[in-house]
Amino acid sequence: MTTDPEQQRLALEKKRERYVWYYLGYFLFGIHVVAFVMIYAVMHAK
Question: What is the 3-state secondary structure (H, E, C) of the chain?
C-alpha cells in the first residue's frame, strides 16, 4: 500500500510531465509558424 507522501509525489510528477509536454507542443508549433512566415517572406520578397 502506498503512503500519502508517495501519492503526492506521483501526482506532482504527473503534473510536471504534462506541463513539459504542453511546453514541447507549443514550442514545436511556434517553430513551424515562424518557419512558414519566413518561407512566405522569402517567396514574396522583391
Answer: CCCHHHHHHHHHHHHHHHHHHHHHHHHHHHHHHHHHHHHHHHHCCC
Q: In this structure, how many other beta carbons lie within 10 angstroms of the beta carbon of residue 42? A: 8
- What CA–CA distance (Å, rounded) separates 9 from 18? 14
Q: How far, in Å, CA of 29 to CA of 20, rounded?
A: 14
Cell of residue 21, nine digits: 509536454
Instruction: Quote the CA–CA distance of 13 and 16 in Å, as a whole number.
Output: 5
Per-residue pLDDT reduced to its tens digit, 4-34: 888 999 989 999 999 999 999 999 999 999 9
